[in-house]
């Protein structure tokens, strides 16, 4: 585990089968929903949790191993609760991506090298 991951709050890594503990975002993500009739509704996401990956999600490591930032963002999108699209992950503040990315990599345990340390 890298030094950066050792500095994470250990309660964020707890995995007791329930929804993981959320990370409060530095800058909340505001998502606009547009109904079929054109009515708009905004929702702010203020915290995101990162769950443990499934085997299928581990394939992202193979797919993006030479693109560490792309891998980081794809992992966040795949593991975030509430679910996020990759476009929404692109809109996150860089500090939030860094924090969530470190947590996502920590959830990979001590698996094979990923081609970078995000």
Q: Would you mind describing this structure in some detail?
A:
- It is built from five helices and three strands.
- The protein has 118 residues and is α+β, with helices and mostly antiparallel strands.
- It has one domain.
- It has a three-stranded antiparallel beta sheet with strand order 1-2-3.
- The longest helix is centred in the last third of the chain and has 13 residues.
- It is globular and about 45 Å long.
- The two termini are 12 Å apart.
Features:
three-stranded antiparallel β-sheet; 118 residues; alpha+beta; single chain
Indicate the proportion of strand residues. 15-25%
* Class inferred from helices and paired strands: alpha+beta
Give the tally of structural domains.
1
Helix content: 25-40%
Unreliable stretches (pLDDT < 50, length at least 5) are 1-5
Question: Could you describe the largest sheet, including whether it forms a barrel?
Answer: 3 strands, antiparallel
Q: What is the gyration radius calculated from CA atoms? A: 15 Å
Silhouette: globular
Assembly form of the protein:
single chain
Widest β-sheet, arrangement of strands: 1-2-3
Pattern of helices and strands: HEEHHEHH
Roughly how many Å apart are the termini? 12 Å
Strand segment tally: 3
Q: What is the average per-residue confidence, as pLDDT, rounded to a whole number? A: 82
The number of helical segments is: 5
């Amino acid at each position: 585990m890298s030094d950066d991951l050792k500095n994470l709050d250990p309660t964020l890594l707890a995995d007791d089968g329930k929804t993981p503990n959320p990370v409060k975002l530095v800058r909340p993500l505001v998502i606009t929903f547009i109904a079929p009739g054109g009515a708009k509704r905004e929702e702010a996401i203020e915290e995101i949790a990162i769950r443990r990956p499934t085997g299928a999600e581990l394939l992202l490591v193979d797919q993006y191993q030479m693109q560490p930032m792309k891998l980081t963002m794809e992992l966040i999108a795949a593991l975030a609760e509430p679910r996020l699209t990759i476009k929404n992950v692109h809109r996150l503040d860089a500090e939030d991506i860094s924090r969530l990315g470190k947590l996502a990599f920590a959830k990979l345990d001590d698996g094979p090298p990923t081609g970078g340390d995000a």
